[in-house]
Design a protein that fits this description.
Layout (H helix, E strand, L loop, with lengths): L4 E6 L2 E6 L8 H4 L3 H13 L5 E5 L14 E2 L16 H6 L5 E5 L2 E2 L1 H8 L3 E5 L3 E3 L5 E3 H6 L5 E3 L4 H13 L3 H15 L3 H16 L2 H11 L11
Parallel strand pairs: 2-3, 3-5, 5-7, 6-8, 7-10
Antiparallel strand pairs: 1-2, 1-4, 8-9
Helix pairs in contact: 7-8
């Protein structure tokens, strides 16, 4: 059976390619690959060299992105005690410490829609579509107007745009970016007082890292610093 989940990394950017994002047409026969996606998410969280993640279906549609650094993710990659967890793939991706960009070219439905909606930034190809929970299909352009998708790009430019966004994120201090994401996620589900308390904790944490020293030195010297260390 062809592997439906591929994972790899390059230049601090992780790439998680899920074949069944494209409409989920094969999920009825073989099931949605919950365990494989969770395994890839575990790999991202354990790898401190990754500063951003792209979730996409483009590896099967673009020769440019079918590169040797991709490796298949199988159920065997998941520890036995974690294979039957009730946590969904979407929940696991939502909890990732790094920003996640969804870049989809096909039709998004079912579990694929949940996975894409769990990402922090969502971009789509101009021919992509989104099947809503009521079964109605909307185009990528309409989904963008409804703010379900952040931006729409030409099919051939989609992964380049995602990579550019990820690279821009990677230019910033990784711990600061991760703490911003954590504070936003917490702030959306709590009151202002609690949210501000978490923000204060995040500021104290970032102020104690080597990245703070590197960033301040670069600012004072008016130069771009490319050597943040994620600690």
């Amino acid at each position: 059976m062809m592997n439906r989940v591929l994972y790899g990394k390059k230049d601090h950017i992780g790439v998680l390619a899920v074949k069944t994002l494209n409409g989920g047409k094969d999920t009825e026969e073989v099931g949605w690959p919950e365990a494989e996606i969770r395994a890839a998410a575990e790999a991202v969280d354990k790898d401190r060299d990754i500063y951003a993640l792209i979730v996409t279906d483009m590896a099967w549609n673009s020769q440019k992105w079918t590169e040797p650094y991709f490796s298949p993710v199988t159920v065997e990659c998941v520890p036995a005690e974690r294979r039957e967890m009730e946590e969904t793939a979407a929940d696991r991706v939502r909890q990732l410490r790094v920003p996640v960009i969804a870049a989809v070219s096909g039709e998004i439905s079912g579990e694929g829609r949940a996975l894409v909606m769990a990402c922090d930034i969502r971009i789509a190809g101009e021919t992509a579509g989104l099947v809503l929970e009521d079964g109605r299909r909307v185009s990528a352009q309409e989904a963008c107007k409804k703010r379900l998708i952040n931006s729409v790009f030409a099919f051939d430019a989609l992964m380049d745009e995602a990579a550019d966004m990820a690279s821009l994120i990677c230019r910033n201090a990784p711990i600061a970016v991760q703490e911003i994401k954590r504070c936003v996620d917490i702030g959306l589900d709590t009151d202002m007082h609690t949210g501000l308390a978490f923000e204060q904790q995040a500021f104290s944490l970032c102020n104690s890292t080597r990245d703070k020293e590197i960033g301040m030195r670069a600012f004072l010297n008016q130069e771009e610093e490319k050597h943040f260390v994620n600690r």
